[in-house]
């Protein structure tokens, strides 16, 4: 081992014990010594990140915060479907009776009616027949003294007469306001008692008069009445003129 190579190896062998001895005496190498400068290398690369540590213990709950401001009302939702009807509840107890109400005003009832009969035989012709036997005349709308019905309530009236015919023929007519409206004729049969009748609906105004009258000569006034035979005249208001 001669030449430069042998010289370098020998130099290293001589220097190594000296560096070892110095290291044994000091804790760390002195950066100022030639040996320390010779041992220093280039800085290494950073290592990889370590694994995450375990979760720590839960902390204690903090104080309750203050209530926040109310938010804006949202839009109205769609109407839901109608649900199934529930079961009928139990029936309640009857309530107490209420107080009796005040009496109301009754509707006005229009009344006008009469029913009369003959008491004398063979009434005179061409004048109103006076029926003086009163069956009904509560409103006194039939005038017994004249034999005429006087209208006090305008409206529609029904009139009828049933006359016993005896001794001679009968011709009678029903008058309204001095005008004959209907006529009835019955021919008398000897040894017999007959009946003559008629009826009519008339509209009357206030003050109108209605009556029966024999017309013609004396041989046509066979209207008769006695204890067992009646001749009657009647009429009543069917419905009034509400106007």
Automatic annotation (TrEMBL):
4Fe-4S keyword on record: no
Record domain C1q: where: 107-243
Biased composition (Basic and acidic residues): 54-70
Entry keyword set: Collagen, Hydroxylation, Secreted, Signal
Extent of the signal sequence: 1-24
Region (Disordered): 44-98
PANTHER family the UniProt entry points to: ADIPONECTIN (PTHR15427:SF20), EMILIN ELASTIN MICROFIBRIL INTERFACE-LOCATED PROTEIN ELASTIN MICROFIBRIL INTERFACER (PTHR15427)
Name of the molecule in the record: ADIPO protein
UniProt organism field: Sagittarius serpentarius (Secretary bird)
């Amino acid at each position: 081992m001669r030449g430069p190579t042998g010289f370098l190896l020998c130099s290293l062998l001589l220097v190594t014990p000296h560096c070892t001895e110095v290291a044994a005496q000091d804790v760390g190498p002195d950066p100022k010594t030639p040996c320390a400068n010779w041992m220093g290398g280039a800085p290494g690369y950073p290592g990889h990140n370590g694994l995450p540590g375990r979760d720590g213990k839960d902390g204690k709950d903090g104080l309750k915060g203050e209530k926040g401001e109310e938010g804006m009302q949202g839009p109205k939702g769609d109407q839901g479907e109608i649900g199934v009807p529930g079961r009928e509840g139990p029936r309640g107890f009857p309530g107490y009776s209420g107080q009796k109400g005040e009496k109301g005003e009754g509707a006005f009832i229009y009344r006008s009616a009469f029913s009369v009969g003959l008491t004398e035989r063979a009434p005179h012709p061409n004048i109103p027949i006076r029926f003086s036997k009163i069956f009904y005349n509560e409103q006194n709308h039939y005038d017994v003294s004249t034999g005429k019905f006087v209208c006090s309530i305008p409206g529609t009236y029904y009139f009828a007469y049933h006359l016993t015919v005896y001794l001679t023929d009968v011709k009678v007519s029903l008058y309204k306001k001095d005008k004959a409206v209907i006529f009835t004729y019955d021919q008398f049969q000897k040894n017999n008692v007959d009946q003559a009748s008629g009826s009519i609906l008339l509209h009357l105004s206030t003050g109108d008069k209605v009556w029966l009258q024999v017309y013609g000569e004396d041989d046509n006034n066979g209207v008769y009445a006695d204890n067992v035979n009646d001749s009657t005249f009647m009429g009543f208001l069917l419905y009034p003129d509400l106007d």
